[in-house]
Amino acid sequence: MSARTDTRPLFIPVVLGTVRQGRMSEHVARFVHAELAKRPGVETELVDIRELKLSNTDEGGGARDVRFTETVARADALVLVVPEYNHGYPGLLKHALDTNLKEYIHKAVGVCGVSAGPFGGTRVIENLLPVLRELGLVTVFWDGNFSSVQKAFDAEGNLTDAAYVRRLDKFFRELVWMAKVLRHGREHVALEGG
Predict the structure, then answer these.
(1) Phi, psi of 187 (to 5 degrees)
(2) Which residue has the higher pLDDT, 193 or 27?
(3) Cβ contacts of residue 174 below 8 Å, gap of 6+?
């Protein structure tokens, strides 16, 4: 294996994918963001879709939030924190994601599913994977599953189950590896016929 020559930090924003009041997934997003920020060689920021200025009278690029577009264009990877609502994902997250396209191509994405029940958002992740693929994102093999989220965090948003730190480490290792490989590919390997 050759020595690593690219010392630029990876930029991996964490996107909180719901706008609902009382959202427990906000605790998850803040925790994921804080843990990701501890990783050497990674820069991150928390993006709350509640704060995006998205048009609902336009489509595609016309509906976009310029700051969000700039963030995903600069990103080497994304982490989506997505609550499961009736086996699906929030519509406003889908709307926000759909406002960009070329900005996602050949970038890694990891999904943290959040649920009040025992499955940790598995169903929302399964439903979101085809959307992410269609957008040109490359999903990692590991997911972040946050089950019974109301028990995993206290009312102030403090983690009560330390096992999530260990679980996220595996998730982040895969995401960072994929982000490095895909960044190298985007910058150094021409797409045949492209």
Answers:
(1) -90, -20
(2) 27
(3) 110, 140, 141, 142
Q: Give residue-wise pLDDT tens across range 84-116.
A: 998 899 999 999 999 999 999 999 999 999 999
Query: Are the C-beta atoms of residues 176 and 35 closer than 8 Å to each other?
Result: no
pTM: 0.93
Q: How is residue 62 written in tokens?
A: 């016309």
Nearest alpha carbon to residue 25 among 2, 59, 48: 48
Domains of the chain in sequence order: 10-187 (3.40.50.360)
Question: In whole angstroms, what is the distance from residue 171 CA to residue 142 CA?
Answer: 5
Tokens read off for 5: 């020559």
Please report, for the chain, how many H helices and E strands are present, in that order.
6, 8
Note the pLDDT tens digit of each residue in 40-89.
999 999 999 999 998 887 766 678 899 999 999 999 999 999 999 988 99
Spell out the residues 6+ positions from residue 97 whose beta carbon is closer than 8 angstroms to its own: 131, 135
| pLDDT reported for residue 120 | 87
Long-range CB contacts (within 8 A, 24+) of 24-27: 24/83, 24/114, 24/116, 24/149, 24/150, 24/153, 25/81, 25/82, 25/83, 25/114, 25/146, 25/149, 26/157, 27/149, 27/152, 27/153, 27/157
DSSP conformational letter for 148: S
